[in-house]
What we know:
By secondary structure, this protein is α+β, with helices and mostly antiparallel strands. The chain has 2 domains: 2-103, no CATH class; 152-283, Jelly Rolls. The chain has helices spanning 2-17, 19-42, 55-93; strands at 152-154, 166-168, 173-176, 179-182, 185-186, 195-197, 200-202, 212-215, 224-230, 241-247, 253-260, 263-270, 280-283. Strands 9-10-11-12 form a 4-stranded antiparallel beta sheet, with no helix packed on it. Strands 2-6-5 form a 3-stranded mixed beta sheet, with no helix packed on it. It has a two-stranded antiparallel sheet with strand order 1-7. β3 and β4 form a beta hairpin. It is rod-shaped. Residues 1-21 and 88-101 have low confidence and may be disordered.
Amino acid sequence: MDEKHESQSGSRLSMLAGYKPSLGMAWAAVKRGLIIHVRAWTKADWFAGIKPLPRDMTSQMAAIGIVVGLLLGSLVYGENYLDRLWRGRLIASDELDQRTAHLVPKPEPEQQPAPVPPKVEAEPPPPPKPRLSQMGESFIERFDAPALSDHWYISDGWDNGPHMDNDWRKSQLDLTPGNLTLTLEKAPDGHPKPMVSAEVRTLPFYRYGYFEARVKVPKGAGLVTGIFTYAHLDGATRSNEIDIEILGKDTRTLEATIHQNGKSSLKRVRLPFDAAEGFHTLGF
């Protein structure tokens, strides 16, 4: 073990001892090569004077370049490292000169969470309006009696206004078994209107339900056959109606109209039949 240790130590010393002469020889070779190249460039045939470097000189110059590069790299890195360390210490202790403060990167501001809008409680829906109580009792009228019952009111001696060319007369109503006929005729001389016709309505009032009639309408321009409900006018109440009307000039079209609070909405419905040809049930 001792002999081996001494042998290893001796070889190590010999390597170190041979290290210095090799650097000197490399430097001498570099110097000699540079002098030769400079002299060659000063001659007229300078290009012919360029010779390749010796092989041993090339390897030695490569080794020197590596060593120089490492030294320069360590110096540059060490300088930057010390500069960052100094700046970091000054920033931490708040000693950085204001003249160089703009060189220090500023930390990005923390992202603040978006404000949450206050929760607005939705207003509760208004309570439903109380359903009005039912009015009237259901009925079926087949017009089988010889006279109208006290369920009906017959219009007689008045009219609906200047927009109509007729007034209502009881004489224009005819009752036969199973049928009630309303007619339109020319008024007698001296009558306030040129035409007379008939109208009946129920005496009881109704609020909800289904209403229908089986009718056959007349043909003729200017004629209007109507089946409708309406609110009784009592001063402040405006006329509210649900109308089914068929004009005599086009008995294949039904006009459905709603009059509510002074406004009207109309929808025309094309019928798959001619309302003037036979009886048909109309209802709402």
